[in-house]
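Technical note accompanying the year-one report. For the benefit of new consortium partners, we illustrate the data format agreed upon in the data management plan: each record pairs a sequence with a structure-token string. No post-processing was applied to the example shown here.
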Amino acid sequence: MNNRTKEIFIVLAILILQTILYIIGGTQKSYIHMDEAYSLGLASYNKTEIQANKDFYNTWHSKDYYEDYLAVNDNESNSYKSVYINQENDVHPPLYYLILRFAMGFSPNHYSKWPGIIINIIIYIFITLFTYLILQKLLKNYNHYKEKSIILAFISSITIASLSNVLYIRMYSLSTLNILVTTYLHIKLFESQKLDVKTLIFITISTIIGVLTHYYYLFYLAAIYIILAIKYLKEKQYKKLIFYTLSLAISGGISLLIWPYLIKHLFFGYRGKGVLSNLHNIPNAIKNIFLYLVVKLNYFGFNNVFFIILIMIIGFYISSKTKNKTYQKSEISKLVAIPCLFYFLLVSICSPYVELRYISPVCGLIFILTLYYLYVLLNSLYEEKKANKITIFVIIIILVSPFIFKIEPEVMFSDKKELVQKLENELNVPTIYFFNSHNNRFLDDIYLFSKLENSYIAKNIKYTDENIQKILKDKNLSKGIIVLINDGQDKNSIIKIVKEATNLKTCKHLQKLNASDIYYLK
């Protein structure tokens, strides 16, 4: 077996193993986040919000009513216009939703998590490949660099952050791939001695795809453009700078032609205004950066060992300085590190919530860069064999940490599996959601309602015996009722009134959901 065949065999084996792990994770996913519901609804429904339907509130519905929002029906299978219109009215570009709509067409008329997960599994095959290619560039001066690159690429693909990205039915896996492709193409451009027209064409195409996937991509692109532009200016390579700038200008023009609402979203939409507002709030910015580092990047991106590795890096760096040891990091490492840092800081400050998904597109790059810098410092202090052993030990710690700290992908929702099964099978009784519209996160629980035969969303009603008896008129209460109450209300008082109105004697709190509490009254 020659070296090329061996390399292909190892890469294929890694990709197959990775895919098997993702499928196992997918089987365990038991609920969906409201943004995942939005993904499915925006890709398949005829409007952005199911709550916008005139008959949504204060009416009894079957599970099919809610499942319709989460699925493509036969009569909708060839219509993609609503996807474009929905995204015009939403805050994101349309590319991911068009891909999701296509995939959902393979399981029509009912909700399935698998189209979204399978899209991400396929995307992650390419994410691992491009991570491998980037690592080869970083590690090319070391022995067995290809083997080290594919192993580290695989480890980065099975961190909890990566598993969360795969299981999250949202555009962030595609955005991760866009950033990796952009990084690799810019590395090629950075290393090229001549004007590389072919790479510039690919950069133009990848930039269009990146812009049409997520607007935060522009943060990364801006940073990497500045680095390359400074390089060209310092080296007086003005022709390269002109052609490079022109390629990005062309991609911007084409993106605007395809998606003219980009300007409206960025500068006049509520998310765009929110970004500008967050940039001026310094105390909140500092707090968010800290939370992203400790709660998201450390816990999910490094399986809760980021600060251990960081302390090791600082320690080895100080040791190398005191011993006058030299270390040689790749020139292209700054082309990856600076845009990652820029993206991480800006997204930490600008994102509306402290959520893993917003930084997930750079989590993999930050992961491999951190281990790369650790490896470089180790090689400055020890012979390569010992550096390899220490690195392997760190990787083992990363792999076992999720079992020690009981970390799972944050969108797996294993804690809700038993609840859904119980409500769908044992307790499929009349269900009322006492809904405070000032805390509108209904889509956090739409999956649950797509499993219930008989449910009612009571919006902003007065909680009186008369109103509750009117809602439950002609309903069989012999097996009791399920009650959901979202936050911002006096839940104990509501439960008390419902018990009095129905003559139900017992109340069991079943679980705290994302935006509501759920009770069983009998």
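Partners are asked to follow this layout when depositing records. The longest strand covers residues 481-486.
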